[in-house]
Amino acid sequence: MSVFDRKRLPPETFKLDVERMRRGWYSDKYFPNIVTLLTQLARHGYRYEGSARALARLGLDAVSVDVGNIEVEMQWFPRRKPFCIVAGIDKALAILKECAGYFDEDGRFVNTFDQMEVDAVHDGFVAPYAGDPSQVTPVLRVRGRYRDFALLETPTLGALTRGSRIATNVYEVLEAARGKAVMFFPARFDAHEVQAADGYAYCIAVEVFNRRNGHQLRAMVSTDAQGGWWEGAGGGTIAHAAIACFLGDTAEMMLAFASVMPPEVPRVALVDFNNDCVGDSLRVMAALFARWMQLTDEGRLEEAQRFKLAAVRPDTGANLRDVSVPPLGDRRLDAGVNARLVFTLREAIDNAWQAWNLPRKWHSRAQKWCRDVRIIVTGGFKPEKIREFEELGVPVDIYGVGSYLLSSCDIHGTNNDYTADVVRVKVDGKWYDMAKAGRAPGVNPALEPVSAAARERAERMAE
Fold first, then answer.
1. What does the pLDDT look like over 74-90, one tens digit per residue?
2. What is the distance between the alpha carbons of residues 91 and 375, in angstroms, rounded to a whole number?
3. Residue 354: φ, ψ to 5°
4. SS3 458
5. What is residue 129's DSSP assignment?
6. Each residue of 101-113: b (16+ CB within 10 Å) or e?
7. What is the tens place of the pLDDT at every residue in 319-328?
8. CB 309 within 8 A of CB 285
9. 76 with 101: CB under 8 angstroms?
10. Interatomic CA distance for residues 344 and 395, integer angstroms
11. Angle at 418 between CA 412 and CA 421, to 5 degrees
12. What integer best gives the mean pLDDT of the chain?
């Protein structure tokens, strides 16, 4: 499923805690307080008694304004340089659809979503950075009675901030990787409840990158939950723990894995368990190829495919120097998954077949079998390191990236915060600017009507 098929995710996708969200459980406390204030003012028929200087300059008398039921225009916008890949819109809309409204005197919830004018971009919109806070690009806009949706500012901002932060981080990594695939590996660095939203944000970033750069990268997540919102499935390699169960024998473990697992599961060997990436890669390759060749010779071609090695994955810790890397005395050049290790590994993989004492008829097939083995690198990869690898031409096929994709500060030193501002109020049936100093209503032609009231407005304007 493409995130650009123009279909929004339905509210039930998000499994929202609707009852508590409607009562402000997830809202910064000043929002329940303002809802209580406005509700009580409306109940007692309060009318504005102050001095509205902004409106007075326009010659308007605000004395009769029903503050408790005041209608406002609020806009949500991101602040990230140089742009932001927007994600979390559908979740924010689901929050509004399910939770905008009020409790009547009998304690029953009255949903007012379709009475409000709600416009939004689609997930995947690329929002430019506004250096001037008065010239922002709103990605979500609501016009309606403020007390009906005031409680929802906190959770909607949270949905947009996290989703867009991850999507934009992923996009930056994809750019650094110059079109090579990036596996999404941050599941272990955060609570499991966020996996579905995070995986969806990653998928959005991949599709935006493909659309803007003419690539056809496939989204690759590590858990089924991460693919839950877009019909994806988790995939991966082998855990170090599995090798430990085979007493540190990576080749034996891979033989067992290849024998048992369905053929569609890629055979990817984790090769740093013994801090000998080249040696363990060669041992795994020799064992799997021997079995592959035997079954092929016997005509058991379908079974032989079980022993086709897809890739190897070095994951050497940043404090270790792999035995195949001659020391230079510089930790950055010696330790971890560094460029020298990958160059050495690629050469060893490509030439492994020459040591197998094969019949001549097998030489070309063995050579291809070896050269088809890809290299997946993991362990501390961020845009800077990936960019350096690409500039050096390091023979990496896939980057696995984890904790960086959750980071709150990007490579430009800015965060991915969102802001929601009231920018207009409705007085005597007309809208007037009412933003705090330094802010103003933004314009975004990509906003599309979502609620019934917004669609009706759009239809009237089109007539």
1. 999 998 888 999 999 99
2. 36
3. -65, -20
4. helix
5. P
6. bbeeeeeeeeebb
7. 999 999 999 9
8. yes
9. no
10. 10
11. 135
12. 93
